[in-house]
Design a protein that fits this description.
mainly alpha; Four Helix Bundle (Hemerythrin (Met), subunit A); 2 domains
Amino acid sequence: MRALGQILMWFGFLGGAFASVSQLELQADKWATVPWLWYAASMGVGVVGIVLLRRAKREDHHDHDKTDAEYSVITSSLAELSSAVEILCQNTQHPPADTLQFIDDRCAEPLAEFADSRQALVKRFGMTVYADVMTEFASAERYVNRSWSAAADGYVDEVDKSIRRAHQHLTNAKELISKAEQNV
C-alpha cells in the first residue's frame, strides 16, 4: 500500500505540474491556458496517494507488538555483543586464532540481529535517536570487523586497540538508548 501511495502521489504531483506548464501562457487571460480538468484529475490522484500513505503510516503505528519484539531483540543483542566485546577487552592475551573464533562465535549473530531489527528504533524513538544510536553501532561494528581482520593478519596490538574502541562505541550506544527510554 505504501508503494502504491508513493506512486500515486508522485504521478499526481508531476501530472499537475505538467498541466500547469503544458501550454504557452496567454497575456490576456493567463488562467485560461491551464487545462483545469487534467490539473484537477492529477491533484485527485495525488490526494488518493497521500491518503494511502497516511493509512499505511497509521497501520505501522498500530503494530506495537512487532515493534516491541524487535526492540527487545535490539536490547538483548546489544547487551550480548557488549558482553562479548568486554570479555575480549579483559582477555587481551588470546592467540589471534582464538580471537577470530570468539568473534565469529559470539559477535557475528548479535551484530546481524541488531542490524535486522534497527527499524524498531525509528518507530519507538524517532529518526534523531535512530541516527545517533546507529552511528555508534556502525562504528562498533566496524571496529569489531577491524579487530577480526587484524587477528587474521596477526597484528595483536591492533586487535586490542580496535576491540577497546568497539567497546566504547557500544557503551555509547547503550547510553543513548537508555537516555531515549527515559525521555519516552
